[in-house]
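Changelog-adjacent note: as of this version, every example in the card shows the full chain rather than a window. The one below runs 330 residues end to end.
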Amino acid sequence: MNTIGFWLKNARPVALPQSLLPALTMLCFAAGKAGFSLPLALIAVAGVVVGHLAMNLFDDYFDYRLKRTSFRRQLQHRGMRARISKCQYLESGAATLNQLLCACFIFGALSLVAGFIIWSQRGNLVLVLAATTAILGISYSGAPLRLSYHGLGEIVIGLMFGPLLMAGVYFSACGSLDRSALFVSVPVGLLVANIVYTHSIMDYEPDREAGKMTFAVLLKSRNRMLFCLLALLIGAYAGIAWGVIAGFLSVYYLFTLLTIPTAASLFYMMWEFVHHPDRPFTPRFWMGPMGDWVRLQSIGIDWFMIRWLTARNLLAFFCLILILVSLVDL
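Full-length structure tokens:
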């Protein structure tokens, strides 16, 4: 049991809302539609969760092999602000690379079992969606493509956890696809991409030092970074509005606009990070839960986590509204 808990912790379950919330959103969106199967929908959600954990571990494996993450400590010693928490279980010797790779395959195998069950009931489109997602997930930081090292990481994450994941859950649940689901999955995908992009802006200096070409590193200009951040946020709300105007979504989906204060707070904090990186911020209720804030301050990552958690909470609030509206709209 300790081994299971060890690897679950290392697989970064704190990031699970990025996949679990989109999956649950589409499950609720599919509920009541023709052919809906709750057991298959739940199996799909479970497959998404373990697949996400596998991807997180694969990301650690490939990143650590490419450049041992101790370089972040070196950057801090040189006075550069950088997180140092990634892959500590490898750096400390608590686990080896071979053990990590084994854990990757176990989580991945569990996801494959879920996919096989759904494929046996729904057909080959499940294989196409699952295979595409798996290839993108491995290629996020794995050879030969290493997409996150060429400025494509945010696009990959947005596609995986938005349209691909949500189409897969919907098809698993109903055995068909619904065009109206696109007007939900694209905005959600943009907000998931926003989490990763917010991360990459804050990791701009260490990523550049490591030769990791994230989208933020690719842009170089601070103003371009902020413009793209604003475009992601506006795009999410515009997608919902377009769906309502086009008649694919009910007007109640506009309740997602209630999350604008959270989005505005995130943009403001990122603006300040780019122009005045040392300015501290205190959590506000509209930013959402911040976990053990005193602990985050004590270990010196509050500057990072308040922004990352606000981006994550924005996705959570957005999806929870979508879930509530879709259930009321049954």
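Structural remarks: The two ends are 41 Å apart (CA to CA).
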